[in-house]
């Protein structure tokens, strides 16, 4: 999974017009995690969600879902089902990669719904940088864009925010940035 994630990062770097290996150093000794999600069937699926709407705070998510289905993405102003496909993986951009691309790649708002009849499982691999390395968009991109969209941070800063202060949703990165800047100001 990590190898696949690293290859995807090379493709993303190329698409952004930066050196293919630009993101390698940040991730090669990173602290990625794999999570297994289990969603029991639910008598009232219209009243419950398996996982509420959120963007993954991590960099890239590589997801395998079983054949039951339940993953939705918010695109074109509406929730759209991502139908399960045997032998296919779903790749999501996460908030950290949004920052690493100076906002050019947007993290993807998604959720998991439940159903009345079948339990569901999914397996998510979250590619994360090493905790103390600085997350910063490449100079090249910032120069071309004319502004730097996000302050420098470490993965451990964002992890602290999402584990202790804030439940990930669609506005995590925005609120994290505000929190980071105000906590930096307090330590001045
Ligand atoms: O189960 C799914 O399809 C989505 C899970 C998810 O969004 C997550 O683990 O972050
Ligand atoms: Fe997610």
TrEMBL record:
Domain called Fe2OG dioxygenase: residue spans: 30-129
Gene3D superfamilies the UniProt entry points to: B-lactam Antibiotic, Isopenicillin N Synthase, Chain
Signal peptide coordinates: none
InterPro entries to which the protein is assigned, alphabetical: IPNS-like_FE2OG_OXY, IPNS-like_sf, Iron_ascorbate_oxido_reductase, Oxoglu/Fe-dep_dioxygenase_dom
Pfam families for the chain: 2OG-FeII_Oxy
Source domain of life: Eukaryota
Protein name as annotated: Fe2OG dioxygenase domain-containing protein
Organism per entry: Vigna mungo
Organism ancestry: Eukaryota, Viridiplantae, Streptophyta, Embryophyta, Tracheophyta
């Amino acid at each position: 999974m990590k190898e696949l994630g690293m290859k995807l990062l090379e493709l993303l770097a190329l698409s952004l017009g930066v050196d293919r290996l630009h993101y390698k150093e940040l991730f090669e000794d990173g602290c990625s995690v794999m999570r297994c999600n289990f969603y029991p069937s639910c008598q009232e699926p219209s009243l419950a969600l398996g996982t509420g709407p959120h963007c993954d705070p991590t960099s890239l998510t590589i997801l395998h879902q079983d054949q039951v289905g339940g993953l939705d993405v918010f695109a074109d102003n509406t929730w759209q089902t991502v139908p399960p496909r045997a032998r296919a993986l779903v790749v999501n951009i996460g908030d950290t990669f949004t920052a690493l691309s100076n906002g050019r790649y947007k993290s993807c708002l998604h959720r998991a719904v439940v159903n009345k009849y079948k339990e569901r499982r999914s397996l998510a691999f979250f590619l994360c940088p090493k905790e103390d390395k600085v997350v910063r968009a490449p100079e090249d991109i910032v120069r071309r864009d004319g502004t730097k969209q996000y302050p420098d941070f470490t993965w451990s800063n964002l992890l602290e925010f999402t584990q202790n202060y804030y439940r990930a949703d669609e506005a995590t990165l925005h609120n994290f940035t505000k929190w980071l800047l105000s906590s930096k100001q307090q330590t001045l």
